[in-house]
Design goal:
By secondary structure, the protein is of the alpha/beta class. It has two domains: 142 residues, Rossmann fold (3-Layer(aba) Sandwich); 181 residues, Dihydrodipicolinate Reductase, domain 2 (2-Layer Sandwich). It has ten helices and 15 strands. The strands form two sheets. It has a nine-stranded mixed β-sheet with strand order 14-13-12-11-7-10-9-8-15. Strands 3-2-1-4-5-6 form a six-stranded parallel β-sheet, sandwiched between helices. Helix 8 crosses helix 10. The mean pLDDT is 95. Bound molecules: nicotinamide-adenine-dinucleotide. The site of nicotinamide-adenine-dinucleotide has 26 residues, from loops.
Length: 345
Amino acid sequence: MEKKIRLGIIGAGNFSVSHICGIKNLPFAELVAICDINPEAVKERAETYGIPHTYTDYKKLLERDDVDAVTLPLPDQVHAKIAVDAMRAGKHVLCEKPMALSREDCSLMVQTARQTGMQLMVGQVGRYTPAFVKAKEIVESGEIGELTFMEAEYAHDYSKIGGRGGWRITPERHPILGGGCHAIDLVRMIAGNPEEVFAYANNKVLVDWPINDTTIAVMKFSNGVIGKVFNSHGCKRAYTMRTVVQGTKGTLIFDNTNPWISVFKEELRGDDMFLNTRQQTVEMRVQLSLNNHNVEGEIADFCRCITEGKPVTTDGVEGASTVAVGLAIVESVEKGLPVKVDYEF
Ligand SMILES: NC(=O)c1ccc[n+]([C@@H]2O[C@H](COP(=O)([O-])OP(=O)(O)OC[C@H]3O[C@@H](n4cnc5c(N)ncnc54)[C@H](O)[C@@H]3O)[C@@H](O)[C@H]2O)c1
């Protein structure tokens, strides 16, 4: 029988349900304990989902010998401290995105993973979204030629999602880091690391929040590719991560909320009798399963990497690189200038 990875969850808020269900659905994972500083939250989750052990102090959970790894659906501000303590206590860590809100915290987490030898995975869950995985596969197959441009958006109305205690409504929690990290990470996953960004932002909807609710950033990559990330936490529309990837021979358009990818390929070109009016592209729809927030897939990968002693794909440096792009965007907005991204962690 496959070895079971025994897990604890620290944080029993909204998103913990995805972690709980993800773990419970996997035959090779076992949920041993859950912790939250809020005793009612932890009690409710434990009773609803039958979790045997509960804590209000995460350090007590970390003392358990029968916990191999922890997942951290916690406010972004405490990711670094608790991830570092967990790794030092000998636990592998799956930390929610964004990895942290500052470069210093990201560096500390990366260094701690190196020093302790524990796996540190960052929950950039888009890496497990079927449309995104398929799009990467199509780009890598060369089917749309050489990449020229990529844009991704993260438009999600946050007006009613402040986080327990309002931790999302704080000046250091820029939406481009908090939610925009999904779009940034998707661009990095397919097009690689942008070397420079230039951004504008405004705050016209969530006017009581001390942050810009809408941001647009253009990007340039060392291989000549250009890109764009758009993030809105104030938008009045359905949640979307609509994305366009353009190559020399075709274009992909997809979303995390559509069960297909549109693939456009040039069919007829040219100097024909209709003065180019027949120049057109053919759309092909690639069907796929709709699985936005595939936390189960993410936790399955985390457990398999631990069991097989393989490094996780979205490790500390990957998570930190996505934060680095977000921080460069924030800096660009503040300075009104293009900013180079520093990926040294
Ligand atoms: N991957 C995704 O798409 C996705 C989606 C939603 C949220 N998230 C991330 O998940 C994390 C949690 O988000 P949420 O919506 O569940 O927030 P939430 O506010 O609903 O829950 C956070 C919980 O952490 C608890 N907590 C705070 N400090 C603690 C501590 N020191 N020890 C133990 N518990 C503590 C709070 O009491 C609260 O119950 C955030 O990092 C968020 O960005 C990711």
